[in-house]
Amino acid sequence: MFEDAPPDMSLFRAIMDTNFWGSVYTTRFAVPHLKNSKGKIVVMSSAASWMNDPRTSVYNASKAALTAFFDTLRIELGSEVKITIVTPGFIESEITQGKFLQRDGNMEVQQDMRDVQVSSIPVGSASGCAQAIVNSASKGDRYLTQPSWFRVTYLWKLFFPELVEWSYRLSHFSRPGAPHQQAPSKKILDFTGLKNVVYPSSIQSPEIKTD
């Protein structure tokens, strides 16, 4: 939670440096060469840029900034350089495996918290997402969201923003004083046994690199 973060904001700055400024700096130097070669830019943003999951406020902000920057750059560059903005939902990765940044700056696997955040939402495969990105960039698409059904969440946020916020508050938080494992989103996942159905086997084990 943002209010529980340590006073030292450098951890948050590192997220912005990686997710936003890392792409901005490399694009600044690449644009002249991309113009000459008729190249393309593929932007790895996230559906988190509009679906603002709680507990990931700065990450969400970094992805929203990334999308806004490249939307603007597309206007400035016109047809000289094609830009495809990729906004994945939940895809198998170390994040959906439960790897979270801690207050002390270290990474730690917390699959219980992952279950709270992801709940019973189907997690797409990395290989399927990669293939979709290649196909989309080759066609010159402006946007790509994977899994494709996740695009409906943009409409939810656009037309029912208060309902989206209310559902997050209801599902992602346990009652005051209770551990986060008591959040309804995790209870639903555990009660239905959907984890083995909607989570790829690759993210069900906590054995990942933590350095």
Can you give a write-up of this model?
With about 210 residues, this protein is mainly α. Helices cover about 50% and strands about 10% of the residues. The protein is built from eight helices and five strands. The strands form two sheets. It has a three-stranded parallel β-sheet. It has a two-stranded antiparallel sheet with strand order 3-4. Helix 3 packs across helix 7. The protein starts with 9 loop residues before the first helix and ends in a 13-residue tail after the last helix. It is found in: Membrane. One of its GO terms (molecular function) is 17-beta-hydroxysteroid dehydrogenase (NADP+) activity. InterPro entries: NAD(P)-bd_dom_sf, Sc_DH/Rdtase_CS, SDR_fam. Its main location: membrane.
Keywords for this structure?
globular; mainly alpha; 211 residues
Could you outline the blueprint of secondary structure elements for this entry?
Elements: H1 10-37, E1 40-44, H2 57-77, E2 82-86, E3 99-101, E4 107-109, H3 111-118, H4 126-139, E5 143-144, H5 152-159, H6 161-172, H7 184-192, H8 195-198
Parallel strand pairs: 1-2, 2-5
Antiparallel strand pairs: 3-4
Helix pairs in contact: 1-2, 3-7, 5-6
Main location: membrane
Keywords: Lipid biosynthesis, Lipid metabolism, NADP, Oxidoreductase, Signal-anchor, Steroid biosynthesis, Transmembrane
Pfam families: adh_short
